[in-house]
Amino acid sequence: ACSSPELCERSLTGDSLQPAGPAIIIITAGQEHDLPTPDLIARTEELNREGRLLVLSKGQPFGTLFPLLDVIIGQGGLGVTSEALRAGIPIITSGILLLDQRWWAARVSELHCGSKAVRVERLLVRDYRYSSAPTRIVKLLRQALVGTSNPEKDWRSRAKFISAELAASVRGDEDGVAANAR
């Protein structure tokens, strides 16, 4: 098990789907008053036994956590999306998709940095024509982690490119205070 993000190895190497070390699963979101479901408790206990769950007792800024990850499955709000783009990692947008979430998912898709918006209940859907077809989330994760031979449409390559562009555009004013003061 990982005791801190700095000690966790990347879950995949190169263009392979073979684990190089433990795949780290991070579960975030919800409110303190939201009780975990029995399924979530069971899955969390299973991941913990396997040494694949990174548990942080208190919140971590996305800007600290995201650069340690290979892909984000997020709700598509401005905070998650902007921090994932800054970290240079692909974004799979899912959830109930309210307000700006669909808009940000469309922007991410147009930039070829991640998926279009996918409602959470559609993530486990399979192509009905093939019983052995992977679920939608497996296909999206494969696209995010393995990519394509076309660098213009490869989510990982594009996310890294956009991250570099963002970094170059804000040099010396990372928090935007100077620009806003003008």
Automatic annotation (TrEMBL):
Ranges in a coiled coil: none
Annotated PANTHER family: STEROL 3-BETA-GLUCOSYLTRANSFERASE, STEROL 3-BETA-GLUCOSYLTRANSFERASE UGT80A2
Name this polypeptide is given: Monogalactosyldiacylglycerol synthase
